[in-house]
Here is the input.
Amino acid sequence: MYKTRKHLSEIKHDSYANVPEEFGPGWIDCSLGINPFGFPEGVGDSMGKFGADIVNNYPHGDTKLKNAIIGYWSENALLCERRIELACGSMDAITKINKMFIDKGTAVLGHSPQFPDFGMDVEGMGGIYETVDMSEQNGKFDGVRFMDGIEERHAFCYIDNPNNPTGQIIPLEVISEIAKKAASMGVCVVVDEAYGDFMEKANSAVNLLDDLSNIMVLKSFSKGFGMAGMRIGYAMGSIGLMDVYRKISIPFCVTGIGTILAIEALKDEGFLDESRKKIAKAKKRIIGAMDNLGSLETSPTVPIMTLTHRDKEVDLYRELLKVQVLSVSGENFGGLGKNSVRFRIGKDADLLLERLRLVVKNWTEGN
Here is the structure.
């Protein structure tokens, strides 16, 4: 009909960022991966203090925010402005990296299960998204298997850490070995740390940036810092890689208000520490109290996890809808089925446990 790219008609695009019509009061949203405990106090204090000029004018706070990011990571890497680029959330950075690397037929290596929108964007660019299946051994990420899958024909490798949807943290030494193997083949490694603020800074791939020039690290303020509505992210890498990235980026990626709030958020690492403690406490309770429901490999401080029902014929997403709990179906993720969901821990563990037990009760009585 119109002159759109022909291969797009052959691609299935069904993002999980959808809310059913019946969602409303009384429901518990355990779908999207925000911080269930809000955002730093300083962010809230800064709201409502903006002048009209911040709406009327183009934002010019990139340098201030980049300098705040440099200071935040000063004990982990020697960064400079040329090694950082801001983005409208980490997904914006992903699309730019794909645009940076991918021509028609370009192969990219990922693993499954992982963030599905990445693979969809690779295919949307005309690339080929290949994955190393990690669904065995309870979904635990296997670094050796992943390294065995890297070939010179791959433009880059993509790893999300912590993993989405399992919420497991991949040790930094595993990421380091993968990056070294990839470097020997001239392959870059993109580490998506959208959920990275739910792990200690010592485990971030930012610690590898000074020694390995083939790594790019993606960060977001949407998850740990609880600022999903502001759409702020950033990418970091070697000067060589970021100079290329800059060529396909656009100015004014982050709003003026978002810049101010992001700078304020970076001042409060105590908020992240407290959030991780609260999440670990709630997650331990939920995992320990489940009956007929299990979970794939996961880490205590990360709010998301993959819940599984032992009966593979059970549509767990639909069963949770019946008790007014919104999750993300495992069918959205490679290597998972309808008996799995991505599930985010909420503030009220007691209420969540009550609803989960009701799912198990309904299934038991129906069988």
